[in-house]
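Two records follow; treat each independently.
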Amino acid sequence: MIAHRRGIALLLGALTLAAACGGSGDGTTTPPTIGTSETTLPVIEETTTTGGDEAGGSDDDATTTVDDADPTGTTIAEVSLPSDTSSGRPLDGTTTGSEWLPLLDTFDGYVAERDIGAAVLAVSVDGEPVATYALGWRDLARTEALTVDTPFRLASVTKPYTRALALELATLELVELDEPVFCTPTRRDGCLVDVVDTAAAAGREVREEMGAITLRHLIDHTAGFDSGATLDPMFTPLLVGADLGLDGLPTEAETAAWTLGEPLTHTPGETYAYSNVGYLAAGLALENATGDDYLSLLRRHLDVGDDLALGTTRPAARAAGEVEYACDEGLAIDLFDPAGSDVCWADGGFNLDAMTAHGRLVAPASEVLDFLRLRCIDGLANVGSCDAWHDGSLSGTYTVARNYGRVDYVVLFNQRRDDAHPGFGYTDVVPTLDAAIGEIVEPFAG
């Protein structure tokens, strides 16, 4: 069993994590429909858009030079940005024209008002990048300036990648969206995820109702799991491990085995309920169907770049240059060393290494923008009419991937705590940036 220094407090710490981290947010409110040519994930309706509106700043420090002209006679301008923003934050970035400088002021104002240490915004119009701004510092000591190439955890912005991958593999007839995913004690053939023996070894049993769940259910968040109504096993690994009689943290397959032994909250296919473990299972299904690992599948079938990687929890194991994540939500029991000292949540309070298909990806903003320029949040082709967004929220991380008609943009922050708003995350950044972008370009023109 897991060694622990506080007895039952160890498990209570895991329960606290479920409340504190809660998985990742979603900028959608109804289940998507697969198989149509239209984006079916609606945007969260916000009643207020605070932050950024009053941001100051001037264009005086930005120099515009005429670089070339296209055959139609339109001037192509290259803008040299100042080294610091109006709020005094270090600035790295590029933009194609001075018309995008007011967006920098808005973003800077939003970030400064909330004192976000590291923030990146990347924007494209009609599939072409027009502005990328990196504000602040890579490290928590605020001594090293952030760059546009700095990798961040994407948290649940991983999910649109998984969804797009599932749809692509279905198009290639490598998976079936409407076939059962889970084996059960009475049906071990024709299924993609078989954890029956794993569950049985721990004295548990995969419930027969799980045999009705399809891959479509998993990626639509309609499988019947509901992290809002029950414990989210992705954020209670100590509890899951203890229940399974493990000596350490559960693997993804072991987490699936534990989950499949619990009753479903909803009948599969009937109710939308956001689920991290559903996407964990979808990732396992795609790997088992193809015999390949998740990241290799993304690179082969979605043509993602080498800068997209799988993150890891412990700071010492992270890729060189990855941003440091804020420690502003208190300390947590270190899941990897429960008998040791407490750590920041982002550094060991959850197990990122076991969140492959629902929250583990790490990338610079440009990689995510490349994905959005080709695909909508629902995984279908981006033809310039998508209107949806998906966010990601982990302690030390808040991210947004946004399709806004002709415009696509990505936001990466190294913190998510906003004392001015309930819950975790900066959901008001979307209407704030939408409004600022709408002053520059018409997202749905033509």
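The next record belongs to a different protein.
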Amino acid sequence: MAIKNAIAKNVSSFLDTLASIAVNDRVYIDESGIDQPDDDGYGGCELGEHFHALKSGQRRGRVNMLAGL
């Protein structure tokens, strides 16, 4: 219950701060990230045969983007 009260207090504080900022002075920011996977390992083979794909096992790069409005 204490956690819910703390969250409610933080939300209330945030909304009070937001209300004090004019709508025309607000900036909205969003962040998104996209993983850059290797090869998904899709392919074709004869019916009943198993398709084998080699993967490096290492994590590839990631692209993070920020946008503001």
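Discussion point: Residues 2-68 form one domain. How would you locate this feature using only the token line?
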